[in-house]
Design a protein that fits this description.
The complex is a heterodimer of chains A (about 260) and B (about 300).
Chain A: H1 2-17, H2 19-50, H3 54-57, H4 62-86, H5 88-96, H6 99-103, H7 109-132, H8 137-141, H9 146-173, H10 177-200, H11 203-212, H12 214-222, H13 228-254
Helix pairs in contact in A: 1-7, 2-4, 2-7, 4-9, 4-10, 4-12, 5-9, 7-9, 7-13, 9-10, 9-12, 9-13, 10-11, 12-13
Chain B: E1 2-11, E2 14-24, E3 29-33, H1 40-47, E4 55-60, E5 63-64, H2 69-75, E6 76-79, H3 91-101, H4 109-120, H5 135-147, E7 153-157, H6 165-176, E8 183-188, H7 191-197, E9 200-205, E10 208-214, H8 215-222, E11 225-232, H9 237-244, E12 251-255, E13 258-264, H10 270-279, E14 284-289, H11 294-304
Parallel strand pairs in B: 3-8, 3-9, 6-7, 7-8
Antiparallel strand pairs in B: 1-2, 1-4, 4-5, 9-10, 11-13, 11-14, 12-13
The chains are: A mainly alpha (about 260), B alpha/beta (about 300).
């Protein structure tokens, strides 16, 4: 375990001494702040109008009108930005020749992968926590339901964890960081598009495509529904990504 | 301490090394010598557990490289051809990180870093970012990294490449100071380095073993006798006859303007030769060893294709 943590610390030093982590976090906060602000502004004007009518007044729900769309927007931003976080994990080691140091150390490949993945998860956590600060004020000035709010952030974290697992896999395959980012981004888009394909598909195909799509599983969480099948989906996706990373690294050496 | 048996590595159809068998004794400095693309780096990568071999056996510090990979990795310090540095770390934090992944206990980590800094002469740059230090210091940091866990075996892939002459000398002195406590294997294609630093060599060419042994053993295997070339103020039959009376001498002959004196291995007649010259008032202009120097040896072995 201490070996995993050593790798994680080293990765965090790399993230936070290069501009990458700062830029990714700053832009994420900026965009999420913008979406949050405009959604709250829109909510206010809607609420003002709806307040005239007692029937509509019952319908006003800050969770559904602000947070659900906010989480959806943030999930797309994560899809665009997390490939940049994961792209360097193995690509850079390979390019710099430092993987030779890692793989000739008495540390297992699994520990190396976990250490790197953990560091990327910490960056993701920093993005989410820092961007969530402004949204806390809705609890001061209003009364949103906490469960859908927290589940939404949990969903974003799980979604991001799955993205990063896919990213680390591509990063193990190439020594070029740009190639790694583009491949991750492309694969993520493909999984996103699956839900569109599901609309036109029928029967079993529709179920399968829907199940594979990232965002179908995310939807429920933003509404405050925690389904174990969604949890299983994200966790198995992340596990599968890390497993493939391990296979790729072993295969490259044993070839 | 390092032993290989019929070691073979193929990349697809390309044979990188073929049936390499050699051994390196404990506490010695051994050179792995060969032209570019001879398979030196591949051999080292197999020994360090970075690459698996296609077939054959290798053991380091008594552990099998394939069966007991973790124990081998624990007992080896390795400097790859491209020095594995993280430019965004300071020298000190980098060495600390390597100490952690080499499983140096946390309580001894600071002492290990201090020791490595001391041995490699990095005191003046230990707080600086690796990005900002010179090429020579980067190379030293690479060597410090290989020594951090006080490994029994140190493997260095071209440790002096790309350095200026003063830095080369410093690194060589550093390597020489490892002798005794560590078993060192270094690859190089600089022959002067072998002569200065190494006790013995393994010479490979195109993946095949051409020769291995101590420098003296190799020199012996190429000539039957030891001896000297002597350049005097005169060289004629009369002088030769004087030398022929020396007890133990096997042969005295004219070789151009020089006199070639040969005697069996294990004896040394140089004092007697000098004494004779003084007695007979022969002026010595030059005297050099008959044994082949490393350059001649290497060229004979690599180009002559003589396999052992």
């Amino acid at each position: 375990m201490s070996a995993v943590w050593s790798i994680t610390k080293k990765e965090l030093v790399s993230y936070f001494t290069s501009p990458i982590a700062y830029i990714v976090i700053a832009i994420f906060i900026l965009l999420s702040g913008f979406f949050f602000y405009s959604l709250v502004w829109w909510f206010n004007t809607q609420a003002m109008q709806m307040a005239q009518n007692p029937y509509y007044f019952q319908q006003i729900n800050i969770n559904q009108m602000v947070f659900a769309p906010l989480f959806h927007n943030l999930s797309i931003i994560l899809l665009l930005m997390l490939p940049v976080v994961s792209m360097r994990l193995f690509s850079e080691e390979k390019k710099m020749g430092t993987e030779e140091l890692l793989f000739t150390s008495p540390v297992s490949v699994i520990q190396i992968i976990l250490g790197k993945y953990l560091a990327a998860l910490i960056v993701l956590l920093a993005m989410l926590v820092l961007s969530a600060i402004p949204t806390i004020f809705t609890f001061v000035h209003g009364n949103p339901e906490p469960v859908p709010y927290l589940l939404g952030y949990l969903g974003l974290f799980l979604l991001g964890a799955a993205f990063l697992a896919l990213g680390i896999f591509w990063s193990a395959l190439t020594e070029n960081q740009i190639v790694s980012a583009v491949l991750t981004f492309g694969t993520l888009l493909l999984f996103w598009v699956l839900s569109w394909a599901a609309y036109s598909a029928r029967g079993l195909w529709q179920d399968v495509l829907n199940y594979l799509s990232f965002f179908e599983h995310f939807d429920g969480m933003t509404k405050g529904i925690l389904d174990t099948s969604d949890l299983v989906y994200y966790l198995s996706f992340a596990f599968f990504g890390l497993f493939l990373t391990h296979s790729v690294i072993q295969f490259r050496r044993w070839r | 301490m390092i032993e290989t048996e019929q070691l073979t590595k193929k990349y697809g159809d390309l044979v990188a090394i073929q049936n390499l068998s050699f051994r390196v004794e404990e506490g010695r400095i051994w050179g792995l010598l060969g032209p570019n693309a001879a398979g030196k780096t591949t051999t080292m990568r197999i020994l360090t557990g970075y690459l698996p071999a296609t077939s054959g056996r290798a053991s380091v510090a008594g552990y099998d490289v394939f069966e007991q990979a973790e124990a081998v990795k624990q007992s080896i310090g390795y400097l790859p051809e491209t020095v594995p540095l993280y430019p965004e770390m300071t020298v000190e934090s980098y060495l600390g990180f390597v100490a952690e992944i080499k499983k140096v206990p946390a309580a001894r980590k600071k002492a290990a870093v201090d020791r490595a800094v001391q041995i490699a002469g990095l005191q003046s740059v230990r707080k600086r970012l690796i990005r900002n230090i010179s090429r020579g210091y980067k190379q030293r940091t690479g060597i410090a990294q290989a020594l951090i866990h006080n490994p029994r075996v140190v493997i260095l892939d071209e440790p002096t490449i790309g350095l200026d002459p003063a830095q080369i000398k410093e690194i060589r002195d550093l390597i020489k100071s490892l002798k005794g406590e560590h078993t060192v294997m270094l690859s190089t294609h600089i022959l002067a380095e072998v002569k200065e630093v190494c006790d013995g060599v393994v010479i490979i060419n195109e993946g095949k073993l051409m020769a291995s042994g101590s420098l003296e053993e190799l020199a012996r295997s190429f000539s039957q006798n030891d001896g000297v070339y002597l350049k005097l103020d005169r060289a004629d039959g009369e002088v030769l006859n004087l030398f022929r009376q020396l007890p133990g001498l096997k042969e005295a002959a004219l070789d151009g303007a020089e006199i070639r004196l040969e005697w069996p291995w294990g004896q040394d007649l140089r004092t007697q030769v000098l004494k004779l010259c003084l007695d007979k008032r022969l002026e010595i202009r030059e005297m050099r060893s008959l044994a082949m120097n490393i350059e001649e040896l290497y060229l004979r072995i690599v180009s002559g294709g003589m396999e052992q």
